[in-house]
Amino acid sequence: MMPSREDGLYVSVSQIKTYLRCPRQYELHYVLGEPAEHVASALLLGTAVHAALGAYYTVLRDGLSAPLEMVLEVFAGAWIAGQPAGLPVLTEDGEPLTAVEQLGRRMLKVFHSRQPRLTGLRPVLIESPFAIELHHPETGELLDERMIGVIDLVADIDGRRMIIEHKTAARRYGRDQLDHDLQPTAYLIASRVLGLGAEGLAYQIITKTAEPAIQHAEVNRTVQQERELMMTVLGVLRAIDAGVFYPVRGWQCRTCAHRQACDRRTGR
Ligand code: SF4
């Protein structure tokens, strides 16, 4: 029941985070392959904004400047592509979908107007996939699974090589989120293993507030945090292998794409 692909066993940070959030959601999605009951508007928005930022940085890497119209055009295309036919889009608090789309446009306008302030930014890699070996944190033994992920952006900023992770978030990230999120830990390990030479990771967070704001926050990770990540990954993989799947009710249920399947399983 391990995460798998045809050419081997893989696990992503996103899968680990899904399991930690709700093991049953992990089971329904990754083990049982339950079809999604809807698309969450937050996912649709995040994906479309990511596509637009990817296009922006690709043009910048080629030594050109990306006009706002182009960025909004890419967003519009990804917005439509992200809505599979026949699948409803679930918005939070019942707000109209057009309001979410307008919010995305406002977020990108703010991003575009502020971004030139990051002078000296030179994109190196955009949407770069990786797969790295995993080792047991105590014995050093090579695990069967490899960790996979996609790094949004590797860029040189004023001579410093950084990994940049784009986020869309309801509010600015707080200290706990910046200090403990597993994603930077995994990406910084990947950077070292792959020889990307990143000195740190910078979040670029665009808030989904009425007046969107940009938060730039640099984080780094210690050897202890890297070791802890491996312990977490190993623990989750063991639990998945043992078939440990239970529901965790909370905020995550509001937009869960498997709510009905979950209720059927519980017999609600
Ligand atoms: S509805 Fe809630 S408890 Fe059920 S699978 Fe989804 S997130 Fe987990």
Model description:
The chain has 268 residues and is of the alpha/beta class. The chain has a single domain, classed as Lambda Exonuclease, Chain A (Alpha-Beta Complex). Helices cover 43% and strands 25% of the residues. The strands form two sheets. Strands 1, 2, 5, 6, 7, 8 and 9 form a seven-stranded mixed β-sheet that branches. Strands 3-4 form a two-stranded parallel sheet. Helix 1 crosses helix 2, helix 3 runs antiparallel to helix 4 and helix 4 packs antiparallel against helix 5. The protein is globular and about 50 Å long. The protein starts with a strand and ends with a helix. The mean pLDDT is 92. The protein binds iron/sulfur cluster (SF4). The site of iron/sulfur cluster has 13 residues, from helix 2 and helix 9.
Helix-strand layout with pairing:
Blueprint: E1 4-5, E2 8-12, H1 13-21, H2 23-31, E3 39-40, H3 41-61, H4 68-81, E4 89-90, H5 97-114, E5 121-135, E6 142-157, E7 160-169, H6 175-180, H7 182-193, E8 200-207, E9 214-219, H8 223-241, H9 259-266
Parallel strand pairs: 2-6, 3-4, 7-8
Antiparallel strand pairs: 1-2, 5-6, 6-7, 8-9
Helix pairs in contact: 1-2, 3-4, 3-5, 4-5
